[in-house]
Amino acid sequence: MHEGRILLAVTAFNPQRWYELLSASRRVTLEPDGPADPSITYAVVWKQRPNLLAKLPNLRAIFSIGAGVDHIFTDPGLPDVPVVRVVADNLTQYMTEYVAWRVLDHHRQGFLYRAQQARKIWHEPPQRTANDISVGIMGLGTLGRAAANALKSLGFEVNGWSRREQTVDGVATFSGDKGLVPFLNATDILVVLLPLTPATRSIITYNLLRELRRRNGLGGAVLINVGRGKLQSDADIFRALEDGTLKEASLDVFETEPLPQASPLWGHPRVFITPHAAATSDPNHLVKPMLDQMEAFERGEPLKNVVDVEAGY
Ligand code: NDP
Ligand code: OXD
Q1: 250: part of which helix (H) or strand (E)?
Q2: How far is CA 301 from CA 3, 274, 281, in A?
Q3: Are residues 139 and 187 in the same domain?
Q4: Where are the alpha helices (DSSP H) in 188-265?
Q5: Rounded to the nearest whole angstrom, what is the distance from the C-alpha of residue 184 to the centroid of ligand 1?
Q6: 192 part of a folded domain
Q7: pLDDT along the chain (313 residues), means of 10
C-alpha cells in the first residue's frame, strides 16, 4: 500500500463501487481528517463540496470522474494542482452510440412513426438517405471526433466546429466566432458536444438555432445536446420548437438537473429526454487507468489528459 490516501469527494451519486475499486490498490477516504489533512495525495471528484480541497498540503493532482470538468471549476477554493479528466474508449463508445442513435431516430422519423403507432395509422412517408442530411457537431474533441467518424460511416455529411482550427478526414471543419454562422448555415441536425466554459455558457440560444439550415427532406432543423445543460437556454429551445425554428430535439442535459417537474419540455411531443445518461462514467473501466496514472506519475512520468485551466476544458 502507498503512503498517501485518495480523497473520494463525490456528491449526487453513491460512490460505493469507486470506493471498492480504488481501495484495492490505495487507501481511500470519503472525508479528510480536517481541512489540512496531510495524508491526502490525490482527489477523485465529482461535484466536490466547495473549498474541500483548498488547504490539503500534500495534494498532488485532482482526477475528474467525468470527461467534463466544469463541476470542478465551480469550486472557489480549487487548489493549484493538475486536473486530469476522463478520456476512455468505454466512455467514448457510449457517447458515439448515443449520438448515432439519436441522429438516426430523427433522420428515420422515429417521432412520426411513434405518433402514428399510438393512433394505429399505417402510412409510409417519403424516405431519403443519410447523404441528404448534414450533421454539424459543435466540439470536435475526443467525443465529437468519434461521433463524426461514426456518422460519416453511416453516410451523413458531417460538419464540425471547434475553438481552434482542426482537421478531420471527410469532415468540413469550421472554427471560432468567424466560423460559427457558416457552420450553422450548413447544418440540418446540430449535435452539441462542447465543454461548459465561460466562452461556451448559454451559447445555444433561439438566435443561434435560427441559423440552422432547414432542408426540405428532414422537414426542419433538429437539436441534440449531449454536452452540458448550461450551454443552452431551455426556454429558447421550447420557443424554437413552438414556432417551427426547430422540428425536434433530443436533450440529455438541462440548465437545471434533474429537469424540474414544471418544465414544459417534459411533455413536448417533439422532444426526447434522457437524464444526463448519454455516456456514463463506469468505474469498472475508469478506475484502473486512474490508478495506473498515479503509479506512472510517482515514477516521474507526466500526467495525461490534463485540463487547460485557462481554457476551462
Ligand atoms: P474535448 O476537450 O476533447 O473537446 C472539446 C471540444 O470543444 C474541442 O474541439 C474544443 O475545441 C471545443 N471547444 C471548446 N471551447 C470552445 C469554444 N469556445 N468554441 C468552439 N469550440 C470549443 O472534450 P470531450 O470531447 O471529451 O467532451 C466534450 C464534453 O462532453 C465534455 O466537456 C462534457 O461536458 C460532455 N460530456 C457529456 C456526457 C453526457 O453523458 N452527457 C458524458 C461525457 C462528456 P479545440 O478542438 O479547438 O480545443
Ligand atoms: C461527463 C459526464 O462529463 O458524464 O463525463 O457528464
Answers
A1: strand 246-251
A2: 19, 39, 25
A3: yes
A4: 206-210, 234-242
A5: 17
A6: yes
A7: 91 96 98 98 98 98 98 97 98 98 98 98 95 97 98 98 98 98 98 98 98 87 98 98 98 98 98 98 98 97 98 97
Question: Could you give the CA distance from residue 284 to residue 71 in angstroms, rounded to a whole number?
Answer: 22
| pTM beyond 0.85 | yes
For residue 7, the cross-strand partners are 29, 43
Question: Residue 24 belongs to a domain with what CATH number?
Answer: 3.40.50.720
Q: In angstroms, what is the span from residue 229 Cα to ligand 1's centroid?
A: 13
Is residue 261 domain-shared with residue 155, that is, in the same domain? yes
Instruction: Kindly report the protein residue whose alpha carbon is nearest to atom 12 of ligand 1.
Output: 139
Q: Which of 46, 281, 286, 305 to mutate to test the pocket of ligand 2 (most atoms within 8 A of CB)?
A: 281
Q: Print the domain residue range for 180.
A: 89-273
Q: Whose CA is nearest to atom 2 of ligand 2?
A: 66
Helix axes 89-107, 142-153, angle to 10 degrees: 50
Domain count, the chain: 2
Residue nearest to atom 3 of ligand 1 (CA): 141
125 and 234, same domain (yes or no): yes
In terms of domains, do 242 and 219 share one? yes
3-state secondary structure of 41: strand
Residues with CB under 6 A from ligand 1: 66-68, 95, 139-144, 161-164, 166, 193-197, 199-200, 226-228, 252-253, 276, 278-279, 313
Question: Which-ligand-closest: CA of 230?
Answer: 1
- Chain centroid to Cα 226, Å, comes to 5
